[in-house]
Amino acid sequence: MADYIVIDGGTTNTRVSLVSDGEVLETKRFNIGAKKSIDGNSSLKLGVKNSIEELLNKNEKTANCIECIIASGMITSEFGLFELKHLTVPAGIKELNAGMKKVVLDDICEIPFVFIPGVKLACTGFDDSDMMRGEEVELVGILGETESVYVLPGSHSKAIRTDADGRITDFCTMLTGEMIGAIAQETILRDALDMTISETDSEYLLSGYEYCCENGINKSLFRVRAMKNLLGATAKQVYSFFMGIMLHDEIVQLLSFTEKKIVLGGKKQLRCAMTEILKVVSDKEIICLSDDVVDNANTFGMVKIYEYSCLK
Predict the structure, then answer these.
(1) Are 171 and 159 in contact, with CB atoms under 8 Å apart?
(2) Phi, psi dihedral angles at 152 (to 5 degrees)
(3) Which of 129, 175, 240, 311 is the most buried (most CB within 10 A)?
(4) Which of 71, 96, 103, 77 minimizes the C-alpha distance to 5?
(5) Do 92 and 139 contact (CB within 8 A), yes or no?
(6) pTM of the predicted model as reported, rounded to 2 decimal places
């Protein structure tokens, strides 16, 4: 098996990993992504360059040892390192492999880059206009059950529908993670919420969801402040109620799908909370993936896509 550098480029962060014989040896992370590259990508280039050099030096590898640098996510956007057009659904590992682009970026290193494109809907009208960069490789990294809904909660949560061949056929994006961060940090609720809490109180989590079902998000959110200041709820109870409210719209969307199986990956804090609610309010089969499967899904998904043409 070959050695690779694998880059997961996000909106706010970039992760660079050294993969050898199917094992992640080490990962470097830095908080520069597409958002900070809107006015120029020099900082992103420098972060990638330094991370690659550090990984090679620390692990006693040379550039000649690395077959290529595989990259996906926002790093393939207009604010990344090399822009690639989205593929249109249906798209799976075969289509992603065929859509890869190999280039050399001399100002970063001599190792060739292989960029994997994102995926978009047909975009014939307002209802079928959506896009993703990065989640398609994460899906390949965790794909098991076909004809299911895969949920990848995060800054921009994705609910992805797949066909019998494991191809993406439809998906929708929700701003769940960014909305949680914005409301928790930039409103009066900042004083009421402890966002370092990682586990939820099941009763209050479900109560937040149900209260939002009945009253909507606006009225429900101010009840978070009232819980702390007037009702004496604990920090965990307040946080759980808040999370139940913030996950409401995404869960309602999932309940509308006809598929009988929902598989959850993505950010642990959101994945576990969504699983708790779904197991109560849904009659679908709910599968919550383990941290081990989720943590390296992007990395192994990229390697699988790159190696597809060699293995088929």
Answers:
(1) yes
(2) -120, 80
(3) 240
(4) 71
(5) no
(6) 0.90
Tokens representing 98? Answer: 């065929």
pLDDT value of residue 280: 97
3-state helix, strand, coil in the chain (%, to 5): 45, 20, 35
* Whether the predicted pLDDT of 1 surpasses 80: no
pLDDT, tens digit, for every residue of 22-33? Answer: 999 999 999 988
| 3-state secondary structure labels for all residues of 221-246 | HHHHHHHHHCCCCCHHHHHHHHHHHH
Sign of the alpha-carbon dihedral angle for 55, 117, 249, 271: negative
State yes or no: pLDDT of 145 exceeds 90: no
Tokens of 161: 């529908």
Return the closest-CA partner of residue 15 out of 72, 65, 56.
Answer: 72
pLDDT digits (tens, 9 = 90+) for 149-197: 999 998 889 999 999 999 999 999 999 999 999 999 999 999 999 999 9
* Nearest-10 crossing angle of helices 235-246, 202-229: 110
What pLDDT is stored for residue 127 in this prediction? Answer: 82
Please, which residues have CB within 8 angstroms of residue 5's CB and are 6 or more apart in sequence?
16, 17, 18, 19, 52, 55, 66, 68, 69, 70, 111
Distance CA 8, CA 10 (A): 6
